[in-house]
Amino acid sequence: MDAGIAEKESVRAARVLREQILTGARRPGSRLVERAIAAELGVSRLPVREALRTLESEGIVATAPRRGAAVRELRGEEIANLNEVHQAFDRLMVRLAAIRRTEEEAAQLVLVAREVLDAAERGDQARALDAATRVRFAVAAAAHNEVLGELIAALQSRMRLLFALPVDMRRQGEVAVEICDAIARADPDGAEEALRRYLSEARVERHGQTLAELESEAGRAASSP
């Protein structure tokens, strides 16, 4: 197979699998069988293998000896750790964006945030998630901090894996609009407060457990002899 074609097919395979994983179409722990995925996408196994490597580097696919690739399962301690990083990065990001954004960036942020809410109100989960991701990158760009942007980009898929678990996209859209409106008004305190309120409401559910319960469980495990 031509290397250029294989590369394009691997990019497409990674995009399709990523969206399936992050929208819940492929559940945590479910196996990712190269042959079956290749047949589903109408490609050979080589681009699928490359796609799985890409998704593993993003932290949303895990491989194990004799078991192969599977959708990564986030466990209590990792959920707690990711949540801590998510909160710290996002609070800094929205504050810097409110201080440093240009007028053009402010206008674009308000438009994209509105897309999240509009898609959620139509029940289009995939489009709402896509718009929410674009909001996050747009806010990071408006913060004008290259290192922060690189760190957020590196963690984006794992963050989406965390927060694409059962979540109220309508509420997420409302908060996106509130935060981006505050950024557009150059109000860093307002943007951070809107984010703080949302994070205090947020609960990631897994097997009936809330985030708080998972964090408590992780703490007990860490303190046990």
Secondary-structure topology with pairs:
Blueprint: H1 3-22, H2 34-41, H3 45-57, E1 61-64, E2 68-71, H4 76-100, H5 103-121, H6 125-143, H7 146-163, H8 169-184, H9 188-201, H10 211-223
Antiparallel strand pairs: 1-2
Helix pairs in contact: 1-3, 2-3, 4-6, 4-7, 4-8, 4-9, 4-10, 5-6, 5-8, 6-7, 6-8, 8-9
Short description:
Strands 1-2 form a two-stranded antiparallel sheet. The radius of gyration is 19 Å and the shape is elongated.
State the low-pLDDT regions, or none. Answer: 203-211
Q: Give the ordered list of helices and strands.
A: HHHEEHHHHHHH
Gross morphology? elongated
CATH topology of the largest domain, anyone? Four Helix Bundle (Hemerythrin (Met), subunit A)
Helix content: over 70%
Largest sheet: 2 strands, antiparallel
- How many domains comprise the coordinates? 2
Q: In angstroms, what is the radius of gyration? A: 19 Å
Q: Please report the first level of CATH classification, the CATH class of the largest domain.
A: Mainly Alpha
Number of strands: 2
- Biggest sheet, strands in spatial order? 1-2
Kindly state the mean pLDDT as a whole number? 83
CATH superfamily of the largest domain: GntR ligand-binding domain-like
Question: Gap between N and C termini, in Å?
Answer: 54 Å
How many helices? The count is: 10
User: Structural class, judged by helices and strands?
Assistant: mainly alpha
Strand content: under 5%
Indicate the CATH architecture of the largest domain.
Answer: Up-down Bundle
Structure write-up:
The chain is mostly helical and 225 residues long. The chain has 2 domains: 3-71, Winged helix-like DNA-binding domain superfamily/Winged helix DNA-binding domain (Arc Repressor Mutant, subunit A); 76-220, Four Helix Bundle (Hemerythrin (Met), subunit A), CATH 1.20.120.530. 73% of the residues lie in helices and 4% in strands. The protein contains 10 helices and 2 strands, in the order αααββααααααα. The protein has a two-stranded antiparallel sheet. It is elongated, with a radius of gyration of 19 Å. 32% of the residues are buried. The model is unreliable at 203-211 (pLDDT under 50).
